[in-house]
UniProtKB/TrEMBL annotation:
The chain crosses the membrane at residues 61-83, 138-159. Gene3D superfamilies: 1.10.287.70. This is Two pore domain potassium channel family protein. Residues 73-152 form the Potassium channel domain. It comes from Streptomyces coffeae. GO terms for biological process: monoatomic ion transmembrane transport.
């Protein structure tokens, strides 16, 4: 029975580590727990009266919540591993009152101290296998800390790339170049560079799905508010006479179709055309349909 309880603790720890791996390092970057938490918080924020202010906090709050849940599951999992063997398989420092506490409380305390790599030494594993398991928990705690830091450092460059594309599209929307103005070498270069940026953002949505739940702000230069105008520019490029502009317009149109496919497959599930997907994206981020 003792080993069955410990096995349940191992299952909890492995579930947390699996979710951490799929969220941060798996090629699909599609963690189950993190995705559920972020989706739930996003949907909840959409029904709050002060939606604009609350939605802006969803991304950071969701990341903090996910990391906290990983930590809690790992700490509880290791505590359950220790629990059936407490206090007989452990040595307590002289004068310590730890042994006078309930076994589960001692187990949680030991797990918390170990995962935080504090090493207070008032409760020490005595059995051989526990002396191996306890340092392993400290190693997992170090992995959790470094994974959290790397997650934060990875997500914000992706948000910067998305924001840069959105601001550039907003500026182009203000100048609103015509088909004739785009029908030149500069127009071809412009459309080609936009296609490259759209591809980068598409990859970011694939590799950093949590970026979707970060709000761009209340202005009209968010990607949700400007991506529809990129489709208008692609159509103008496709209506030009120069072959290089036609090619660049086709590239931008294809890049936008690919971006729409990712948004629809992972987040929106409309099953519609790229225009429908971008309209749903704008609505989901508190924007009306984008205007040309």
């Amino acid at each position: 029975m003792e080993w069955l309880i410990s096995l349940a603790g191992v299952t909890l720890v492995m579930a947390a580590l699996r979710d951490l791996f799929h969220t941060l390092w798996h090629p699909s970057r599609h963690g189950g727990l993190s995705r559920l938490v972020m989706t739930a918080l996003w949907k909840l924020a959409r029904h709050v009266r002060a939606r604009g202010r609350v939605v802006g906090l969803v991304g950071p709050l969701a990341m903090v919540t996910v990391v906290g849940m990983w930590a809690v599951i790992i700490i509880l999992g290791w505590a359950i591993i220790y629990w059936p063997h407490m206090p007989g398989a452990f040595t307590f420092a002289p004068g310590s009152r730890a042994a006078e506490q309930p076994a589960l409380l001692d187990s949680v305390y030991l797990s918390l101290v170990t995962v935080a790599t504090l090493g207070l030494g008032d409760v020490v594993p005595a059995d051989g296998w526990l002396r191996l398991v306890s340092p392993l928990e400290a190693l997992v705690g170090f992995v959790l800390l470094t994974a959290t830091v790397s997650w934060v450092l990875e997500i914000y460059p992706a948000l910067t790339r998305r924001r840069a594309l959105a601001v550039r599209l907003a500026l182009l929307r203000d100048t609103d170049p015509t088909t004739g103005q785009l029908d030149c070498v500069v127009g071809a270069l412009l459309l080609d560079s936009l296609a490259t940026e759209v591809v980068r953002v598409r990859i970011d949505f694939t590799q950093y799905a949590e970026a979707y739940y970060f709000h761009d702000g209340e202005d009209h230069s968010s990607l949700a508010a400007t991506v529809g105008y990129a489709a208008d520019l692609a159509q103008r490029g496709q209506a030009a006479r120069r072959p290089d502009v036609l090619l660049a317009g086709d590239l931008l149109a294809d890049a936008l179709k690919d971006l729409a496919a990712i948004l629809d497959q992972r987040f929106l599930h409309t099953g519609g055309t790229p225009q429908d997907v971008f309209a749903a994206y704008a609505a989901d981020h508190g924007r009306g349909p984008t205007q040309s």
